[in-house]
Amino acid sequence: WLAEGIAGVQQNAFYMHRALDSNNLKDALKYSAQMLSELRTSRLSPHKYYELYMRAFDEMRKLEMFFREETRRGSCSVVDLYELVQHAGNVLPRLYLLCTVGSVYIKSKEAPAKDVLKDLVEMCRGIQHPLRGLFLRSYLSQISRDKLPDIGSEYEGDADSINDAVEFVLQNFIEMNKLWVRMQHQGPVREKDKRGKERNELRDLVGKNLHVLSQIEGVDLEMYKENVLPRISEQVVNCKDDLAQFYLMDCIIQVFPDEYHLQTLETLLSAFPQLQPSVDIKTVLSQLMDRLSNYAATSPEVLPEFLQVEAFAKFSNAIGKVIEAQVDMPVVGAVTLYVSLLTFTLRVHPDRLDYVDQVLGACVKKLSGKEKLEDSRATKQIVALLSAPLEKYSNIVTALELSNYPRVMDYLDNATTKVMALVIIQSIMKNTTCISTSDKIEALFDLIKGLIKDMDGAQDDELDEEDFKEEQNSVARLIHMLHNDDHDEMLKILCTVQKHILQGGPKRLPFTVPSLVFSALKLVRRLQGQDGDVTGEEVPATPKKIFQILHQTIEALQCIPCPELSLRLYLQCAEVFLAQLIDSFYTSSYCVTAFLIQAANDCDLEPVAYEFFTQAFILYEEEIADSKAQITALHLIIGTLQRMNIFGVENRDTLTHKTTGYSAKLLKKPDQCRAVYACSHLFWTDDQDGIMDGERVLLCLKRALRIANAAQQMANVSKGSSGSVILFIEILNKYLYFFEKGIPQITNTVIQDLIELIRTEKQNDSSASDPSAEAFFASTLRYIEFQKQKGGSIGEKYEQIKAS
């Protein structure tokens, strides 16, 4: 059918061109009418009809040029031509020809443009077939758009000509819209969706009228407000067609200026609640708010106008009415509207937190009575709603002032609550936000509770292990960012954090407790020896108070299988006592001994520190069974205890005795040997008036030698060789260390005997030599020679040792 139509158009166009070439007006009109008769078909789809129409349109442009030339030469009066074409046999060709001649008629200015246009738009009522009438009026709009009696136009007439131009475009628009809507109701019901798609392809034909209307110079704000917008809105509402209403409301928003929308908000918004329930109002209304917010962002000078017209109140009221009118609107639609309103508010009124909270409150009201959201699209919009204030203010503290913020979060499911909590933490990290009051932290931890404890009995077993670690590491980083220069307020912060993270369960505590512990220890270092009564709630921050909190916190780790971490934290706390006391000492004139006694008696810190070590030993005995973990823990205990000088003689003897006893009970002989000679450092420290017990140092080293010898014998029994001498070389280096420290019990004779012992063991070893042991021993001998060459007191001490 399309091919037949095109063939008919081409054939008649050929004869029409021949008539035009011979200036035969009668035949030109005859063949042009026959050509246009091809547009009377009802067999083509809109898409194919458009193709046929464009073929005819191109030919009609040539015919128009011929008419113009004829009237210019005077061969035919345009008035006579206007009357002549009305004698065409069929209505559709007659009206196409009439519009074509009407264009020439207006161009000739022999009659006012408004009269010709009025006549044409009325005559086009003769075609009521939706498809044919729509294209006919589209043709009329196309040939008249540059001939409207607009201000500054060559066709401008009297003062009312602007009204006539507007009336012509509006009337043509209204009639086209009626034809467009009528297409939906023609044909069988089963083809309704097909007709909807076909109509969607023709929507630009109708929308072009609004574009033409927006280009008329005479349409000022007053005319738009009093005449244009009410007429268009009335037509949009009355057509009661969801496709037409959606498209035309979108067109209004897109084609008319932003300042017009701002000044006519009430009229424009009043149409939205009257639209069909099936219209996607959220998209159109969101576009309007986005456009106006962009207008405010690019033109700050117009912001007072937004306040003057009460834009926020009108939008908020309109959204409420739309949601109320469309009772079946899905949750995602309502939330999307609130997201757009919040975006508009943050861009236009960023200083009005009450507006922001009002939007969140309206969203809570819409969601009230519902359980956790299960619609993923609605959930995504809620996340967007909650993220908008964070992105705008770059400060979570501002969001914490919004009373409805946590109420909105309550409607998220557990997984999305975690996502939102991570967004909040990432915002804090990105903007290095300092949250400095316990009240704000209480509110913050309420927002991120999905990360710090199980929600509604939900478990994290299904969560990917890497994702879980990343979540908990984010919480740990957050704890480190909490700070207040006021010691008492910082203590309140730590107590608030402790209250929340101890609810985290066994999987979370190993990640979050260390951060709390080290944050508390930083506060201890800042206090510099302050102390006082720890009873009551409103007490000053003191080291003792903080260490009691730390003891409770670390104790919570003991109920989960994490003894190594607990032990490390206990030892870290004990060591901070020493650092805190030393800091205090440097601010006073007391000697170390006197100060330590004073601190022990007045502050009663020694029993607390001793308790930390006791807990560490209990963990070592009862919880740590792995041999490698025992070695690591034992060396950590030795290193921490060696740096401690807070203990009295009795307590220190108890702790060192326990430590050396644990060292001698390790499973493997080499591990025993290394732990025992490491214990020698517990009996000799370089601090002023430190521990200097040379006898016990020598006792540890001799014991280490016996264990090393036993290890050699065991290797000889099991492997048939004496084994490596690496342990003897390590012990030799310890002897050299204490020899340089001046311990009288460590003499050059003892060192010389040990060197000879190592050489003897090497000679007796029938197996292949150990390269690392050889290099270690050679390096040790070179060190002895180097010390000899240095001269002075050190050189004299080493002089009698024969290294070569």
Describe the structure in your own words.
- This protein has 804 residues and is an all-alpha fold.
- It is built from 40 helices and no strands.
- α8 runs parallel beside α11 and α15 packs parallel to α18.
- It is elongated, with a radius of gyration of 46 Å.
Proportion of beta-strand residues: under 5%
Largest sheet: none
Principal-axes geometry comes out as elongated
The total count of helices amounts to 40
Rg calculated over all Cα atoms: 46 Å
Structural category is: mainly alpha
Report, as a whole number of angstroms, the end-to-end distance: 113 Å
On the 0 to 100 scale, the average pLDDT is 84
The stretches of 5 or more residues where confidence is low (pLDDT under 50) are 531-537, 580-604
Count of extended strands: 0
Helix content: over 70%
Membrane topology: Peripheral membrane protein
Subcellular location: Cytoplasm; Endosome membrane; Golgi apparatus, trans-Golgi network membrane; Prevacuolar compartment membrane
Protein name: Vacuolar protein sorting-associated protein 35
InterPro entries: ARM-type_fold (IPR016024), Vps35 (IPR005378), Vps35_C (IPR042491)
